[in-house]
Design goal:
With 480 residues, the protein is α+β, with helices and mostly antiparallel strands. Helix content is 28%, strand content 21%. It has helices spanning 3-10, 84-95, 130-141, 144-148, 156-170, 218-222, 264-275, 310-334, 366-371, 397-402, 437-443, 446-465, and strands at residues 11-13, 19-22, 25-26, 29-30, 53-55, 62-64, 71-80, 100-103, 173-175, 179-185, 191-198, 201-212, 227-229, 243-247, 286-291, 294-298, 342-346, 356-358, 378-382, 411-414, 426-428. Strand 7 (71-80), helix 2 (84-95) and strand 8 form a beta-alpha-beta unit. The longest helix has 25 residues, at 310-334.
Amino acid sequence: MNSDSTRRRFLQVTAGGLVVSSALTSPDTQVAGATEQVKRITPATGDVLRTTGEVSNDGKAILESERAIPVIGTSDVLICGAGPAGIAAALSAARAGASVQLIEVAGCLGGVWTVGLLTKILDAGNKRGIMIELLKKFTERGSQVAIDSNGTVYDPEIAKLVLEEVCIEAGVKIRLHTRVVGAVLDDNQRLVAVLTESKSGREAWQAERFIDCSGDGDLAAHAGCQFEVGTGSECTCQPMSMLALLTGLDPDQVRPWIRETGSSAKKRLLELMEKHGIDPSYRAPTLRHLHSNVFSLMTNHEYGVSAFDADAITAATLRARREIHEIVAGLRSIGGPWKNLAVVATAEQIGIREGRRVLGRYTLTAADLANGLSHKQAVCKATFAIDVHALNNTGNKEINRDYKTGGMKPYDIPYPALVAADVDGLLMAGRCISGDFIAHSSYRVTGNAVPMGEAAGLAAALSIQQQVMPHELDWKAPGT
């Protein structure tokens, strides 16, 4: 079915662009026969499209009245999530000639790079394409630390600006402050629209192809894809961590404790903390120098928190922020080079290592890592070690014994792992691709997210040009 007939099937509009009738359908959504003209609001007035409904007889639910949702955007490719994977997907698709809409819940681009204050890009050294381009820009705009690290240690504020500039230059349409809350499929299990909520209310967006770069697999879940979470019967996930920016330190005076001086810096920092009665929840505290006298600090673990439980994430965020301030106060009380230590900022978003792993057309496994998988449809080669942070405050003795100490070989991330198995027209990139718990602990880092996004964006554009679904595309990495 070509794109024009598809749009005619799902949407009829008046000359003024207002939706008159809609027959968008999915297993969970039936809106056929809606004839009421969609109401529009003028943003400047502050008006809203009000919801009506009734309280259920038992008082435990609100029965919301049916309403027509305005379709406010159409594009070739729609990407949910503007983190490292989403940025690369948007750039790749736009540069391949597709019209691209990028939707992000935060107030800036970059995801964990910016909102999460990550400050370090792992497993980026052997990558090419967009990853090299971004590292070069971070280096050119950055400090001597950025130069020395080839851009892998970066300033989050510089990253925000760089990412905005490259996306705007590529013609990507950006919508911030907007959360994906639903998905609509046709009768053939093809994704045809997403629903969002924002200050502009509930809105619908249509596209030919969709890419889930949300990290937690939110779009795929709303679309009805199968997925896995964590490990074991309790779906235990890796801990969350909040990062912070600090100031008040002289780099020369605290050099022994700076991570880039060597892996033993973490051990020395923990010993310093414990000597002075500071007991961090993360037992490998990491201090990084960014520029001038600005540093980043990771010294927090939040165990047993679900990425899909807003109450649990809220509680973890409050605990983490309090712990950071307590640790900084403890270090400041040591005196000497620490006497002027102060918090500049804590992350707006606590760092989430693990959400959904969406079922794809290929699933990466621990065996693939052990064997150094070579795949004819490789997206990139991952080299980052198996890295399962402690699942509780007693550690991961069994996981370390059975997997990490056994080593792994560099392995390919296959394109089919980025293609949803259950829904047509949907790709994934970043940590929500298809893999098992152990494999995820390696490929989840952002140096791999970028080439995954680049591949997904290009595949989305090419599949439209060739009039095939992403799983039907004969994927070949550029230059092969």
